[in-house]
Amino acid sequence: MDYLPLFLDVKNQRCLVVGGGDVALRKIRLLHSAGARLRVVAPEIRKEVYAFLSGSHHELKERAFHPDDLGGVALVIASTDNHAVNQQVAERAKQQGVFVNVIDAPEAGNAIVPAIIDRSPVMVAVSTSGTTPVLARLLREQLESVLPNGLGQLAALAGEYRGLVKARFDSIHDRRHFWEETLTSDVAEQVYAAQLEQARSTLEQRLAGAELSSGELYLINVAHNDPDELTFKALRLMQKAETVFYTDDVSKAIMALCRRDADLIAVKNAAEHEALIIEHINNGRRVLFISADSASLITISSNLSTLLANKNVPVHTIPTPRL
Ligand SMILES: C[C@@]1(CC(=O)O)c2cc3[nH]c(cc4nc(cc5[nH]c(cc(n2)[C@H]1CCC(=O)O)[C@@](C)(CC(=O)O)[C@@H]5CCC(=O)O)C(CC(=O)O)=C4CCC(=O)O)c(CCC(=O)O)c3CC(=O)O
Ligand SMILES: NC(=O)C1=CN([C@@H]2O[C@H](COP(=O)(O)OP(=O)(O)OC[C@H]3O[C@@H](n4cnc5c(N)ncnc54)[C@H](O)[C@@H]3O)[C@@H](O)[C@H]2O)C=CC1
To answer: Closest Cα to atom 43, ligand 1: which residue?
Structure first.
């Protein structure tokens, strides 16, 4: 990882943009929409910038960059069309310990502006670490087309209820379960259909009536060991599972798609882990057993089915067994 992705609160923070051309305008709009106080320095500043930054808490200076411009700033964008000037701005900013984004030479600076999907409060940012900005844009466009418009409203609504949900469920595990179910339930559909009041009442009903979660078991065979060959269902379950038992023949690329906070347990001899698997399920956890070896999956599947008989535990097997 060459860059650390982070979301910064720049409200009321002084941010310096050196340059006042097309690219600078794009960055100025972005900083402005995040509530920054701007200082723009350039011999020629596009007129849109004046129209845009009319408030008194912004400073516009129609002259070349001077190192004193860095005084008191939280973040710098070097966005002139003069490579040497951009380098100088970057050097000075880094000397002063201020993060700087350089629009014509990312390696000269230490911050990158990503392609952004803004469904505030939900934000998605894509970067190619400066290698291929057009790819970042194309990915952003693809993601835009699959992310519902109402995503921000859903997050805002859920945010209002976090305190109540915390009070309702003692363990983080049950809270997580509640949110995973709720955020993929009718509540989400109602928010997306702009029926906010209805969504609110459905959420409240779920909160009032929700039972403590029961465990689940997912059995996935990844014979191909290639992430591109995974089905949507396999991926969804991999991202739901809180405990993952895996055999060492599963590729790293596939394991990387499991949820980040899952407990990963390496398995040599599946039979030795059956009791532990059952224990996790009985504790209400969603357990995944994943292997590239179909024989070991068939064995564990039939052993666990016997042990779980009459327990009403949902079991999902992928690929679906053919009769
Ligand atoms: C390193 C970075 C610096 C930074 O942080 O600004 C950078 C650098 C450079 N961009 C160049 C060119 C173009 N950039 C765009 C567009 C975007 N560029 C953005 C970010 C970044 N660009 C950062 C890396 C992001 C990452 O990690 O991937 C986006 C995502 C965000 C934004 O700027 O707001 C925004 C898309 C927003 C969106 O649509 O969502 C287009 C137009 C297009 O694609 O339509 C072109 C013209 C096509 C071309 O020439 O490639 C050049 C060559 C200049 C030249 O040749 O003269 C350099 C310099 C170099 O690479 O050396
Ligand atoms: N990061 C990105 O997304 C992209 C970066 N680029 C790069 O960005 C560069 C700038 O592109 P544009 O904004 O379109 O150029 P532009 O010509 O519209 O603007 C250049 C600006 O730099 C200012 N400037 C020049 N010398 C200065 C100095 N000493 N101090 C302060 N300001 C100074 C000018 O007054 C002008 O406002 C291009 O040369 C290209 O290398 C181009 C496209 C996309």
So the answer is: 134
Question: Helix crossing, 196-209 with 172-183: angle to 10°?
Answer: 140
Distance set, CA 42 to CA 45, 49, 105, 118 (Å)? 6, 11, 19, 29
Which tokens hold the place of 6?
């982070």
Cα(first)–Cα(last) distance of the chain, in Å? 45
pLDDT single digits (tens) 146-180: 898 999 999 999 999 999 999 999 999 889 989 98
pLDDT in tens, 84-109: 999 999 999 999 999 999 999 999 99
Ligand 1, atom 21, residue with closest C-alpha: 133
Residues with CB under 6 A from ligand 1: 26, 101, 103-106, 112-115, 127-130, 133-134, 136-137, 140
SS3 109: coil
pTM of this structure: 0.75
Asked if CATH classification 2.102.10.10 holds for the domain at 216-318, the reply, yes or no, is: no
* Pocket of ligand 2, beta carbon within 6 A: 18-24, 41-44, 64-65, 79-82, 85, 103-104, 133
Q: What are phi and psi of 185, to 5 degrees?
A: -100, -165
Determine the atom of ligand 2 nearest the C-alpha atom of 45. Answer: 37
Kindly give the distance from the C-alpha atom of residue 25 to the centroid of ligand 2, in angstroms, as a whole number: 10
Q: Selecting from 1.10.8, 2.160.20, 1.10.1060, 2.30.30, what CATH number does the domain 151-209 have?
A: 1.10.8
Instruction: Name the residue at shortest CA distance from atom 9 of ligand 2.
Output: 81
Output 312 or 97, whichever has higher pLDDT.
Answer: 97
Proportion of the chain in helix, strand, coil states, percent, rounded to 5: 45, 20, 35
Cα 315 to averaged position of ligand 1 atoms, centre (Å): 47
Is-cis flag, bond preceding 121, omega within 30?
Answer: yes
